[in-house]
Amino acid sequence: MTSAPDLPRATDLLRELLGDRLLTPADAGYPDAVRLWNGAPVAAPALVARVRDAGEVAHAVRVAGRCHVPLSVRAGGHDWAGRALRDGGLVLDLTALRRVDLDPGTGEVTVGGGATAADVLAALRPYDRVVATGVVRAVGLAGLTLAGGYGPLCGRFGLALDNLLGAEVVLADGRRVTADATHEPELYWALRGGGGNFGVVTALRYRTHPLAAALAGMLLFPLDQATAVLRGYGEEVRRAPDELTVMAGFLPGPAGEPVVFLAPVFTGADEAAGRAAVDRLRALGTPLVDQVAPLPYEDVLRMFDGGMADGNHYLLRTRWLPRVDEPVVAALTAAAGAVTSPFSAIALHHFHGAAARVGVGETAFGLRADHLLAEIIAVWAPGDDPAPHRAWAEHTSAALAPHALPGGYPNLLAPEETDRVRLAYGPNWDRLRRAKRRYDPRGVFSAVPTLPPAGPPVPRVGQGRPDPREHPAGR
Question: For the whole model, what pTM was predicted?
Fold first, then answer.
């Protein structure tokens, strides 16, 4: 039998540590602290702890355990299903942990658990270095990395998680450990794809890459050219070199009708080869907008700034597609023609090259074959009837399902799609569940995706490297 939360005791203990950085629904700062990018999720946490360092995180985790208060973790706050907020629980708000430190000697960068892609790229820009990111600057780098991290550098440098060299983690019992290839290697394996299901990640260490600029931009085509453009896109991505990663899909157009988009990013040294690749994409139709030029990588991500407005209501569905063939082209084109909202969109993320050459067992991420990630984004204004928009997303997902691979990208799967979470990890599923049981046997962390514990506790093998800043106070 689970003990009832002792919120008064938890409040007193946390207030002693955090002062006015502990927020309750009665505090003036509470509404801002629980406001998310997606306005649809409704959750009312009892407490929000605005922590400033890993020591405070560890203390808060111990208090939550002692007082039986459910936990959630907020970093970027961009999970579309709103799982950063736990109804009636304690939110560990990491948004103050945004420090970025580059080691010029090794080219490695250490990033706070609350840092966004924008924070990291801005810090690296003076050095003409980058990390692998997603496509939106406002997204938290930790949440993106822990479950995958598709982005414009996928073909050249792999997923964001393929570039994670180590992490500082607060475990469910409040211990602080470092997970890397030699310290807690099983935790390090699980973090790279298993999401935030094993602890609170307070810092991450990444490999960076020299990249002064990329040939990148946006090509927009009218909807009546969708079939031809997507057919050609399917052929182009099948033979694309590592240096070329191309997004595609449908975006809201200025007249309310969707437009087809292609967003190439070429990072190779051969400028002529890059321009030839863009010319082939340009020739797939008659562009309405043709804006491709050398850009700093930080500015590549600015292309998607403002594309999705904070406060609107969102529902996402996703499929993994092995190729863009005729049935997929037909399903996508039909979906664009039937869109129910002028804000909705569909995006295809290109997985190939370096990301596909990582062995499926090297990380927890379960799909290493070339594929396209379809992201179906239903959007509507607050106050609108959500039913038609939800139905559009569900219908589009169902139309793609017969042509899709099992599972789906865990960061985008809905909370109820537990069967697809299991399929997403393929041969890594059992090992991942054992890791969950080892590091979080009581199921304290229910992150994206949620993993069930498995079987009896697994005996610990060795000890992780304690964080040198750990201290016994508050235990």
Answer: 0.93
